[in-house]
């Protein structure tokens, strides 16, 4: 039995790789004990317990770049968080601490280093996050998903594993029937899945909102994930069309079923969404979030587009052309097959297992 802390979060793109690593460590030995450390009030405090793990919240927050005065309380929050992680590590006595990026992994990994607990970092993106860069110097291993990460991290610590994806998403092909039942949709009709990352995407939502009628009149049905801010408007649109052909939800917990039902996908280009689309082998139109740090979502998307494994629609053009492109792609069977074939070559189904094995090597002093 080993004891492992996994820390970080803030968005689904940090939380779900963390859950995938936890699941792998449990699959290797069900007596392994996993404790998550997140940030109070953040998404992980709700999603991690739903995935079956215990989580402790730190009173930490990020730097507010638009209102510097709001940062006055930060040093106190950091000190309180460090003190809390000190207590957590002393009580739980982990063999290793894993950081997946996001506010909470900073104090947790700093304290782990201070108390002599070895650490591993998992970086999801082609551009390293601030927290991960900071805690990388003392980490034993850094598991990455993109090439050329030596520009951010010490070369000798980097292991190229890909992003760990939850097990249920690794196998979707056999779940089609169950998926259509779950979403109340017609298994005979072409299905578009619209996902805006873990928080929903405004531009994608507005484009779908304006084009919903066109999609339906072109014989498509839609699974539409909106995020919390757009759900009421989306529900009203669906009601006013009086259609049974749209399933709408602010968040989808059963992403395996959503991928299983989908013939094609519209998505942001967050790192985990991209990794999952590769595994699910879905023809996709990506709309990268242009304000992501260093425009990393465009880089994520281009790694697919460059090998003809996905289409890209720029955020600024999405309101005008996204729905037309969806209809065009849905009508082009040969292109859908080609995209599906190309995207699957980029999948990394063993990432979770490889990261879990790196974790165990660290614990065993290898
Ligand atoms: C706005 C922002 O900062 N986005 C970043 C965030 O994206 P974001 O949190 O949107 O993350 P990703 O697109 O990488 O992953 C989303 C994750 O949430 C899951 N999911 C999503 C919607 C849903 O209804 N249900 C569900 O379970 C997906 O299956 C996936 O596992 O983290 C990513 C990984 O660090 C980055 O690449 C993104 O740039």
UniProtKB/TrEMBL annotation:
<keyword id="KW-0132">Cell division</keyword>
<comment type="similarity">
    <text>Belongs to the glycosyltransferase 28 family. MurG subfamily.</text>
</comment>
<dbReference type="Pfam" id="PF03033">
    <property type="entry name" value="Glyco_transf_28"/>
</dbReference>
<keyword id="KW-0131">Cell cycle</keyword>
<dbReference type="InterPro" id="IPR004276">
    <property type="entry name" value="GlycoTrans_28_N"/>
</dbReference>
<dbReference type="GO" id="GO:0071555">
    <property type="term" value="P:cell wall organization"/>
</dbReference>
<dbReference type="GO" id="GO:0050511">
    <property type="term" value="F:undecaprenyldiphospho-muramoylpentapeptide beta-N-acetylglucosaminyltransferase activity"/>
</dbReference>
<keyword id="KW-0133">Cell shape</keyword>
<feature type="binding site">
    <location>
        <position position="198"/>
    </location>
    <ligand>
        <name>UDP-N-acetyl-alpha-D-glucosamine</name>
    </ligand>
</feature>
<dbReference type="InterPro" id="IPR007235">
    <property type="entry name" value="Glyco_trans_28_C"/>
</dbReference>
<feature type="binding site">
    <location>
        <position position="166"/>
    </location>
    <ligand>
        <name>UDP-N-acetyl-alpha-D-glucosamine</name>
    </ligand>
</feature>
<dbReference type="GO" id="GO:0005886">
    <property type="term" value="C:plasma membrane"/>
</dbReference>
<feature type="binding site">
    <location>
        <begin position="271"/>
        <end position="276"/>
    </location>
    <ligand>
        <name>UDP-N-acetyl-alpha-D-glucosamine</name>
    </ligand>
</feature>
<feature type="domain" description="Glycosyltransferase family 28 N-terminal">
    <location>
        <begin position="4"/>
        <end position="143"/>
    </location>
</feature>
<feature type="domain" description="Glycosyl transferase family 28 C-terminal">
    <location>
        <begin position="191"/>
        <end position="351"/>
    </location>
</feature>
<keyword id="KW-0472">Membrane</keyword>
<keyword id="KW-1003">Cell membrane</keyword>
<dbReference type="Pfam" id="PF04101">
    <property type="entry name" value="Glyco_tran_28_C"/>
</dbReference>
<dbReference type="GO" id="GO:0009252">
    <property type="term" value="P:peptidoglycan biosynthetic process"/>
</dbReference>
<keyword id="KW-0328">Glycosyltransferase</keyword>
<comment type="pathway">
    <text>Cell wall biogenesis; peptidoglycan biosynthesis.</text>
</comment>
<protein>
    <recommendedName>
        <fullName>UDP-N-acetylglucosamine--N-acetylmuramyl-(pentapeptide) pyrophosphoryl-undecaprenol N-acetylglucosamine transferase</fullName>
        <ecNumber>2.4.1.227</ecNumber>
    </recommendedName>
</protein>
<feature type="binding site">
    <location>
        <position position="297"/>
    </location>
    <ligand>
        <name>UDP-N-acetyl-alpha-D-glucosamine</name>
    </ligand>
</feature>
<keyword id="KW-0573">Peptidoglycan synthesis</keyword>
<feature type="binding site">
    <location>
        <begin position="11"/>
        <end position="13"/>
    </location>
    <ligand>
        <name>UDP-N-acetyl-alpha-D-glucosamine</name>
    </ligand>
</feature>
<feature type="binding site">
    <location>
        <position position="125"/>
    </location>
    <ligand>
        <name>UDP-N-acetyl-alpha-D-glucosamine</name>
    </ligand>
</feature>
<dbReference type="InterPro" id="IPR006009">
    <property type="entry name" value="GlcNAc_MurG"/>
</dbReference>
<feature type="binding site">
    <location>
        <position position="252"/>
    </location>
    <ligand>
        <name>UDP-N-acetyl-alpha-D-glucosamine</name>
    </ligand>
</feature>
<keyword id="KW-0808">Transferase</keyword>
<comment type="function">
    <text>Cell wall formation. Catalyzes the transfer of a GlcNAc subunit on undecaprenyl-pyrophosphoryl-MurNAc-pentapeptide (lipid intermediate I) to form undecaprenyl-pyrophosphoryl-MurNAc-(pentapeptide)GlcNAc (lipid intermediate II).</text>
</comment>
<dbReference type="GO" id="GO:0005975">
    <property type="term" value="P:carbohydrate metabolic process"/>
</dbReference>
<dbReference type="GO" id="GO:0051301">
    <property type="term" value="P:cell division"/>
</dbReference>
<keyword id="KW-0961">Cell wall biogenesis/degradation</keyword>
<dbReference type="GO" id="GO:0008360">
    <property type="term" value="P:regulation of cell shape"/>
</dbReference>
């Amino acid at each position: 039995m080993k004891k492992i802390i996994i820390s970080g979060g803030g968005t689904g793109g940090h939380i779900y790789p963390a859950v995938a690593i936890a699941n792998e460590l449990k699959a290797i030995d069900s007596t392994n004990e996993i404790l998550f450390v997140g940030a109070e009030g953040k998404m992980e405090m709700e999603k991690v317990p739903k995935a079956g793990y215990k989580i402790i919240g730190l009173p930490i927050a990020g730097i507010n770049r638009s209102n510097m005065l709001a940062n006055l309380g930060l040093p106190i929050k950091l000190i309180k968080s460090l003190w809390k992680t000190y207590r957590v590590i002393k009580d739980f006595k982990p063999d290793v601490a894993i950081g997946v990026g996001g506010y909470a992994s900073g104090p947790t990994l700093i304290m782990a280093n201070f108390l002599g607990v070895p650490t591993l970092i998992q970086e999801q993106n082609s551009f390293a996050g601030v927290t991960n860069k900071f805690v990388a110097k003392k980490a034993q291993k850094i598991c990455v998903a993109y090439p050329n990460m030596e520009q951010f991290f010490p070369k000798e610590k980097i292991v190229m594993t890909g992003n760990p994806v939850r097990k249920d998403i690794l196998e979707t092909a056999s779940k089609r029937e169950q998926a259509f039942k779950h979403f109340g949709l017609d298994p005979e009709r072409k299905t578009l899945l619209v996902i805006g990352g873990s928080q929903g995407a405004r531009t994608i939502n507005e484009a779908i909102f304006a084009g919903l009628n066109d999609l339906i009149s072109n014989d498509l049905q839609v699974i539409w994930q909106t995020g919390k801010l757009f759900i009421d408007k989306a529900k009203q649109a669906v009601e006013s069309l009086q259609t049974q052909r749209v399933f709408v939800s602010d968040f989808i917990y059963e992403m395996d079923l959503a991928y299983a039902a989908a013939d094609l996908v519209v998505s942001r280009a967050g790192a985990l969404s991209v990794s999952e689309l590769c595994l699910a082998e879905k023809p996709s139109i990506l709309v990268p979030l242009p304000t992501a740090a260093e425009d990393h979502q465009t880089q994520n998307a281009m790694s697919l587009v460059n090998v003809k494994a996905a289409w890209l629609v720029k955020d600024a053009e999405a309101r005008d052309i996204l729905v037309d492109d969806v209809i065009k792609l849905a009508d082009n069977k040969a292109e859908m097959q080609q995209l599906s074939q190309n995207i699957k070559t980029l999948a990394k189904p063993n990432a979770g297992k490889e990261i879990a094995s790196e974790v165990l090597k660290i614990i065993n002093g290898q």
